[in-house]
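hi! just following up on the protien thing from before. the input was this:
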Amino acid sequence: MTNGFFYVNYTDTNGDTVIARYKVSSNPNIANSSSAFILLKIDQPFSNHNGGQLQFGPDGFLYIGMGDGGSGGDPQDNAQNLGTLLGKMLRINVDGDDFPADPNRNYSIPSDNPFVGITGLDEIWALGFRNPWRFSFDLLTNDIFIGEVGQNSFEEIDFQPSSSNGGENYGWRCYEGNSSFNLTGCGAASNYEFPIFEYSHTDGCSVTGGYRYRGNDFSGLFGIYFSGDFCSGKIWGSTQNGSIWTTTQLLDTNFSISTFGEDEAGEIYVAHYSSPDGAIYHIVSTSGGSCVGSGSFRIRGKVTSSARRVISGVTLTINGPGSCTNTATNDSRGRYQFEMLGNGAYTVTPSKAGCTFTPSSRTVTISGSNQTVNFTGNCP
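and the predicted 3d structure came back as:
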C-alpha cells in the first residue's frame, strides 16, 4: 500500500485496548504524531491477556487477536461468550463506518464474517482464545497459524486453513491445549479445534507464534513453520504431511523471544527482548548432508532414449534444501527413485559417459506431494 497509513494495537493509560491508525510524516521513517485515528477501543477488565497482534489478511481485512480479558482461568468466561470481543480473533474492514454513533467503533463489518445476522458480535472471526499473542498468514497458502499462550500447563499452536469460513472455536477455557481445563458449560470435544502442536511447561512458559518459511535463500527451510518460547528461548519447526503435523526442536537459545518477523521476500527473523543485549536475528539454514530421511515424499522417474528404449546404468544426482545431495543409479527398466524427502526445491541431474540428456537437469519443488522427473537420453 502507498497511502502511508499504518495500524497499531496498544494498551492505553486506563488499561484498555486501542486499535489506531497513523500516517507517516514527510519523512517516511517517522510517524505524524497528530494523525491518530481510533478504529476500535475495547474495555479490559484485568491488566493482562490483551493480545497485541494485528495482521492484514490476503482478503484486505484487518485481523485482531484479542485475549480473554485477563486474571487467571478466564473467570468471566469471555472466550466462549459471543457477546464480547474478548478471547476472540476479530476481522474488520478499515474502510467505511457501520457505527457512526459510536466513537469507539470506526470501521465496517465484512459481510461474510461468520456471525453476521445471527447470534454473536459481527466482528468475531473465531473464538475460544486465552491470549493469541502472535499469529500469521502463510504467504503461499493463506493458512493462519496462531500462537496461543496457555495457563499453567500447556502452550499451543492453532491452525486455520485458508478454506475456512471462520467461526471455529479453539477451546479455551474448556481446554488448555489438548487437555481439559474447565468443562463447565462446555459441549462435546468435537465442537472444538485442537492444536497442531502443544508443549508443556517443562519446555517453556509462554509461546510466541511465528511464520512459515516461504523464502528463496534457504530451500531446506521451505514450508517449515517456526515458533518459540519467551521463557526458555527454544525454537521449534513444524512441518505438514496431509493432515498430520510433526514438530521438531531446532534451536535452544538464551533469547527472550518476544516476536518473529517476516520480510517481503519471506525471510524470517526473531527478536530477543532484553536489555542491554536485545537484538533482531535472521534465521538461516546451515544444514547439509543427505536429502534422504528429511521427510516422507519421493522423486522418481525414468530415463529412455528418443525411441523410447530404456537407458540403464545412468547416475542420477539430486541436490536439495540446505545443500543436501544424494546419488542413485537407475535400474534395468530405466527407473530411479529418491525416497524420504522433505519439502523444498530439488535439482535432479542425469549423467552417463558418452551420453547427453534432455533436459540436462530439472528442478522441482516438493510441497506436500511426490514429484516425477523423466529424462530422454542420447547415447551414440
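DSSP finds no helices and 29 strands in the chain.
The chain has a mean pLDDT of 93.
cheers
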